[in-house]
Request: fold
Amino acid sequence: MTPRLAPVLSPADLPVAELCSARLDGELYANGDGWCPVDEIDDATTRSLAAALLVPPRAVAERMTAAWIYGACPEPARQQYCVDARCRVKMILSPRIQLREVTLPPADVVTLVGIRATTPLRTMADLARDATLAEDAVVAALGALADRFGFTATVVLGELPRSGRQLTCAAARLRAVGDGVR
Reply:
């Protein structure tokens, strides 16, 4: 019996030339920085395993990367991760990765297969208040997360600071989502 391939392959499993050839032959598809056999479903599990290839275990997928893992948006060109400011972690120098230090309560993190990510509610709150992200992509991701997890605008706003520019930006984005966030 032929052994089953891992759900997400990397150059640690096979040489890049073989992975690319298998993709060209229709046996694999690209998923993040990994490759998946065509019989693997593109879901949160495979996306989290692909995201885990890029960062150390202490990193937490956040904002658009977490939204991608949850299936709310396409894979971002630049993956976004955070680490707890109190932990020591080797910084990653890559144009594909944005890594920042934050204070992250344990209740805001979930462990998925292969990686940790911010909870869907924390992901929505972070997306809503991040003014550096493209407005249309954020509104689409917020709508998809609201549909998938059933959060209301009031719940998301409850996760934000009580005043300031971030709250104004977040409220405007949540209004733009409209009926997607009830």
